[in-house]
Structure formats: structure tokens, C-alpha cells
Amino acid sequence: MSKKAFAVFLQELRDGRTHAELSDQLANLLEKVKETGKGGEITLKLKVRPAGRGADVDKIVIGDSVSIKLPNPERGEDFFWLTDENALSRNHPRQGNLELREATISQPTTLKEASK
């Protein structure tokens, strides 16, 4: 009995559309792994069933599904203060605000030399 190579079968399945989808998804996964430094996965699931009823099966139906799990980039965290009313604040609720104003730059009119 001659066996068909899986790679050949995969290229024939759904007229090559499954193979093309897997190739595209693999390229996408490799890009995300390189970008994030984290791993991911691709899953090919095949469902095989007889096309008809009876004990003599000479025709089958094969369905496929492809799923991909891409790595997520680090999202980071943010810092907030919690007020007495349980509201979020960027500023410490028990610390006063420092009033800032524009500084004026003045040039000395005469330069003095330091004595030794």
C-alpha cells in the first residue's frame, strides 16, 4: 500500500488554500515572536469522516481548521493615587500642588573676576 506524504496531502487539501493559510499564519507568527520575544502557536485540526453510510468506506470527507495564538507585547503598568472617595488621581491627594511660574533669565551687567 502506497502512502501519500503529508506535505503533498496538505498542498492538495482545499486546492492548496489550507497550505497557503498556514504559510501566511506562520509568517505572521514569526514576525510577532521576533517583535515580542515571546512564543506563540499554530494549530491545524483535521476532521475525517466517511462520506456515506455503511461498512464499505471508499470515500471520505476531510475538514480543516487553523487557529493561531499570537504572543502579546508587554503592555506595561500605570501608577495612580486613590483618594478618600476611592477615585483615581494622578496627583497625591494629601500633598499640595506646587505652583510653578515662568522663570526670567537675567544677565549680569558686569562680570567680576574671582580673586585668588
Q: Can you tell me about this structure?
A:
The protein has a domain at 6-69. Helix content is 23%, strand content 21%. The protein has helices spanning 6-12, 17-36, and strands spanning 41-50, 60-69, 81-82, 88-89.
Number of strands: 4
Number of helices: 2
Q: H/E series, N to C?
A: HHEEEE
Shape: elongated
State the end-to-end CA separation.
104 Å
User: What average pLDDT do the residues reach?
Assistant: 89
Strand order of the largest sheet: 1-2
Strand content: 15-25%
Which regions are unreliable across 5 or more consecutive residues at pLDDT < 50?
Answer: none
Q: What structural category arises from helix and sheet content?
A: alpha+beta
Q: Could you tell me the radius of gyration in angstroms?
A: 34 Å
**Main sheet specs:** 2 strands, antiparallel
Helicity level: 10-25%
